[in-house]
Amino acid sequence: MTIARRVLLGAALAGTALARPALAQRAWPNRPIRLVLGFAPGGVGDLTARMIAPKISEGLGQPIIIDNRPGAAGIVAAEPVARATPDGYTMLLLTTTNSTADATYRSLPYDTKRDFAPVARVATFDHVLLTAANSPYRTLKDVIEAARAKPGSINLGSIAVGNAQHLGAELLRSMAGADMTVVPYRSTPDLINATTTGDVHIASEILAPVLGQIQGGRLRALAMASAERYPLLPDVPTATERDLPGYVVGSWNGVAGPAGMPRAVVERMNSEIGRVLALPEIREKLLELGVTPAFTSPEDFGTFIRTEGERWSRIVEEANIPKQ
Questions:
Q1: Which of 101, 119, 192, 250 is deepest in the core (most CB within 10 A)?
Q2: How far apart are the C-alpha atoms of 259 and 285, rounded to whole Å?
Q3: 126-242 is classed in which CATH architecture?
Q4: Alpha-carbon distances of 258 from 9, 81, 83, 124, 247, rounded to whole Å
Q5: Could you give the CA distance from residue 239 to residue 139 in angstroms, rounded to a whole number?
Q6: CATH assignment of 33-124+250-318, given 1.10.10.10, 3.30.70.260, 3.30.70.1170, 3.40.190.150?
Q7: Backbone angles phi, psi at 258, to 5 degrees
Q8: What is the DSSP string of 267-305?
Q9: Using one digit for the tens of pLDDT, what is the confidence trace for 228-244?
């Protein structure tokens, strides 16, 4: 081989070696992103994700694929994301259920605070205490007084043992100092039917899936379990302002990825989520669902996740709820 040919071959090999890192470092994203949800299609978390995902996709230039994996208090969805390659192509809709699972399970196959990279909180969901439209109870105080006067006579309904609605019901019973019977149902429709027929005297539920029933007159809202009144129900007082000071229960969701996700990816995704949540049409649609946009920075979302874990652990302890 001549010296000239050796020089040319060496240059070609060097060029190939230099090209490989360049190809490996193509700008994110260059393929679809999978967003895993721990809920079945049609729920408030699913509706929220499907509402904002197309707008985020427009900004990123890549589709976001919603992957519904319901079951086991969000564990079925969270575990594969915690174990995924932290390249920004697999993310999780982290929710209150993840925090309540931390509080109610003795052990989990991941650590919510350690194994996920917070990207942004997306929304909060107010909880409401409600009864049938034809119920004799007009206020939360009426129900509490009835329960104290005749222990065990009031059925307090919720859904899914261990989630925020159920823990909110247990907290209500504990804070009210009243012997109510907590009755968990499999789904929101089951809980609504039991409430309208009077089998349940008071129900603890997220506002979003029952807002239409309240506005339509089938259910009566006794009190919001939030710090402030909900804009679309201005006449419904909060529990804490009148009948049960300090009773505040709420749900939330946000986006997270596997721990170790590149900072540039976290910041880009955070920026797109913030942009979409600021769109007037998105905000209006979310409020109509009973959902409040609640965008945060990655750092603030991380702090919020830790605080929520501690808060739900206290609730479980104070209400003497046995761990699973």
A1: 119
A2: 32
A3: 3-Layer(aba) Sandwich (3.40)
A4: 42, 6, 7, 22, 34
A5: 10
A6: 3.40.190.150
A7: -65, 150
A8: HHHHHHHHHHHTSHHHHHHHHHTTEEE----HHHHHHHH
A9: 999 889 999 999 998 99
Distance separating alpha carbons of residues 207 and 218, to the nearest angstrom: 14
Q: CA 254, CA 96: separation in Å to the nearest integer?
A: 9
Helix-strand-coil percent breakdown of the chain, rounded to 5?
A: 45, 20, 35
Across the range 105-122, mean pLDDT stands at: 95
**DSSP bridge partners of 185:** 159
| Calpha distance 266→256 (Å, rounded) | 9
* Range 96-109 average pLDDT: 92
Q: Which residue has the tokens 């994203």?
A: 29
| Position 132 confidence tier, pLDDT thresholds 50, 70, 90 | very high
Overall size of the chain counted in residues: 324
For residue 195, report the phi and psi dihedrals to the nearest 5 degrees. -75, -45
Nearest to 100 by CA among 135, 73, 119: 73
**Phi-psi map region of 277: left, alpha, beta (phi>0 left; psi -120 to 50 alpha):** alpha
The structural domains of the chain, with segments of one domain joined by +, span 33-124+250-318, 126-242
Residue where the block lists tokens 């969901």: 125
Q: How many CB atoms lie within 10 A of CB 225?
A: 26
Alpha carbons within 13 A on the beta-carbon side of 141: 7
At 255 the pLDDT is 98
**pLDDT at residue number 25:** 53
Most distant CA pair in the chain: distance in Å? 104
Confidence (pLDDT) at 219? 97
